[in-house]
Design goal:
By secondary structure, the chain is α/β, with parallel strands linked by helices. It is built from 11 helices and 5 strands. Helix 3 packs antiparallel against helix 4 and helix 9 packs antiparallel against helix 10.
């Protein structure tokens, strides 16, 4: 599955990192553009004066290194012919078209109505639904990516319960519920 990640799902570090780990283990193929990077960086700088541009650029470079095809370019040519409720979101759909993505992952589903996306073979999914779909499609890769993500959390490390609470705080209640239902199989990679 190829998915464009909207800036709003790349803004929270815990969700961004989870999505990156799932890409590293090849549970899906992520896509974004320079415009999506810039949008995320502007939002972080506006909300977090303790974060520097250098830190954001480092994250950007790490994201772009995940896979060479993750960073979409040449999508700007599609923008004038696209319609979305907010014209400023057309670049996201354009990146999906150019990047051959079938999904746009966004918290802002009303910005990407089905009727505007369907002619391009694209649909929008809330990050919670996207993660549950990956869990179904790629269960072993999903568990591997979750395990790597949780293992990467060292400052501070998170117990399984704290990790699930973090997912709930990110409005990923379906994902949290499925992981909690699977208990240890969900986040630490061991059969329960």
């Amino acid at each position: 599955m190829i998915a464009v990640l909207d800036a709003c799902v790349l803004y929270p570090p815990a969700l961004r990192d989870l999505l990156m780990w799932l890409a590293v283990v090849k549970a899906y193929e992520p896509r974004w553009s320079d415009q999506i990077h810039s949008e995320r960086m502007r939002s972080v700088l506006a909300d977090r004066p303790d974060i520097t541009v250098d830190q954001l650029n480092r994250t950007r470079r790490l994201m772009d290194a995940i896979a060479p095809e993750s960073l979409v370019s040449g999508h700007e040519a599609h923008i004038p012919s696209l319609w979305l409720p907010d014209a400023d979101d057309r670049h996201v759909l354009a990146a999906a078209i150019e990047g051959r993505a079938s999904v746009i992952v966004s918290y802002n589903l009303s910005d990407f109505p089905h009727g505007a996306l369907a002619p391009h073979g694209v649909h929008a999914l809330h990050p919670d639904r996207f993660l549950v779909s990956l869990m179904r499609r790629e269960p072993s890769k999903f568990v591997q990516g979750m395990h790597k993500h949780r293992d990467s959390l060292r400052k501070p490390p998170k117990s399984e319960e704290e990790y699930i609470a973090t997912l709930r705080a990110l409005r990923l209640s379906l994902t949290a519920r499925r992981l909690q239902g699977g208990s240890s199989r969900g986040t630490n990679g061991r059969a329960g």
